[in-house]
Fold this protein.
Amino acid sequence: MSSQVKVDRKFTIEDIVNDVRSRGDAAVVEWTNLFDGTNYEKPQRAEAYGDIPTAAILAAAENVRTWHAAQRPKDIMMEVTPGVTLERRWTPLRSVGLYVPKNLVSSLIMTGIPAQVAGVNRIVVCTPPSGAAAVAAAAALLGIDEVWAIGGAQAIAAMAYGTESMAPVDKIFGPGNAAVNTAKLIVSQDVAIDLPAGPSEIVVVADDGVDETLVEQEMAAQMEHGPDSRGFIVRVGNDLEAALLEVEKYAAEHVFLLGEKAESLAPRIRNAGSVFVGKYSPVPAGDYATGGNHVLPTGGWSKSTGGLGLESFMKTVTVQRVTKEGLEKLAPTIEALAELEGLPNHKATARRD
């Protein structure tokens, strides 16, 4: 995605990111006041107020928690060869930044709950000022207390580089519009991001003769995310392989399968963020309630990456232990490869008294 996405006639997203990186709080305030119509003098924490559907939020969070807890990867330790032991240990990230689009409490659940399950120490949330009260109220309900009323590219830059008010994070998560995703890709040179997630996409794969109302419902549901959302319909006639090739070509965020032939493709689809099978599996069920994560790759990224999972909020550390006898056995290999690569100091480490 180009860093030349225009935010008005004068500035690019890259300009905003660089400004926040250089001037911190002052830049965050100026861009927020410009784009969101606020009158801030300094970055503001979001205040929680108003009614939120507490039972629904807790029910969705419980399903997300259950599904992501089951994904916890196992540490591995093994003796690869006598005297050589390797360990691969999973550890949670220390801090994460969560971008939550306006009013999308479900995105807070989809990012905040896995972060908690993983054991992340510090969770920072940024969300546009309009709608921040509901997001802050939901965050308080879920036990997340650092919520900022900052949206757009300035929020991504603030989380990436830090300001006088906000310490930087180690990785940034969450869906967003074109400006947010562009900012994420820019800062990814310096801080890890999850994936470009947004604008929304759907491919509806339908047999001949299905209930067209269901096709229309699924398309309409994704289109209401915004004018840049994309939807495609693949009709399954007599050529199932052709339909599969078309689905794979789109590599979309969501794939909805409707009809016996279409549904038979579920085990074979590789390029999709999430696949929904059958009339009783609407995509919004995954957006809100099933427990599956709705932060998914868009723009063709599903060809190479999947949606968020617990491991997204963790990383591995490899520990290597070699005994004297083990090193003696490894020495010929170390020496031969070091000599081939012209690295004499590497070669010298192979023999130790």
About this structure: Residues 324-341 form the longest helix (18 residues). The first strand starts at residue 76 and ends at 81. The two ends are 55 Å apart (CA to CA). The chain has 13 helices and twelve strands.
